[in-house]
């Protein structure tokens, strides 16, 4: 299991686009954004933001809500009742670890983390709740995580994928056709270059 992060950056307050209060503006990769009383959010209402230590109960609820199949694809085992130490590990951030959460209203619907070290500049792991799978949220989390890693100097990324996780392996082949994949004990070790763009 990977750990995670950098310091949360300070951001200037977001103002609605002029003449568009309550309207829609283009966002990441052309996604429409909706003004939500103080911030711009994608039209699906999901905010991707750095994790905070006060997210512990949200993350615990997120983990409990994952199906056993999804738990196994991400953690290579079922979780049962996630303990405090596991939740802390999934929220821990420092100069080597980064954690992003996808939050809809007050519920965590996705978790992505990176860890600097190992055979690549950064190792990543991502999981999205069952109800949000297949909507591109995992790809959004990965892109944001890799942009942050590249800004910190990372040039290569690695990940371990369960051999039966055909959706993720297919996405990797599509997004990173040059990725090197090596099968090892039922998992696929993936390594590729980070596109800093």
Describe the structure.
By secondary structure, this protein is α+β, with helices and mostly antiparallel strands. The chain has a domain at 32-154: Aminopeptidase. Helices cover 26% and strands 31% of the residues. The chain is built from five helices and ten strands; from the N terminus they run ββββαααβββαβαββ. It has helices spanning 56-65, 68-75, 84-91, 137-151, 166-175, and strands spanning 24-26, 32-35, 40-42, 46-50, 97-104, 107-117, 120-128, 156-162, 180-184, 187-193. The strands form two sheets. A seven-stranded mixed beta sheet has the order 4-5-6-7-8-10-9, with helices on both faces. A three-stranded antiparallel beta sheet has the order 1-2-3, with no helix packed on it. Strand 6 (107-117) and strand 7 (120-128) form a beta hairpin. Helix 1 packs across helix 3 (84-91). It is globular, with a radius of gyration of 17 Å. 28% of the residues are buried. Residues 1-40 have low confidence and may be disordered.
Supply the number of helical segments. Answer: 5
Order of the strands making up the biggest sheet:
4-5-6-7-8-10-9
How many beta-strand runs?
10
Structural class: alpha+beta
Contiguous uncertain segments of 5+ residues: 1-40
Specify the CATH homologous superfamily of the domain at 32-154.
Gcn5-related N-acetyltransferase (GNAT)
Average pLDDT level: 81
Q: What's the level 1 CATH class of the domain at 32-154?
A: Alpha Beta
Distance between the termini: 28 Å
Share of helix among residues? 25-40%
Whole-angstrom Rg: 17 Å
**What is the N-to-C succession of helices and strands?**
EEEEHHHEEEHEHEE
Strand fraction = 25-35%
Question: What profile does the largest beta sheet have?
Answer: 7 strands, mixed
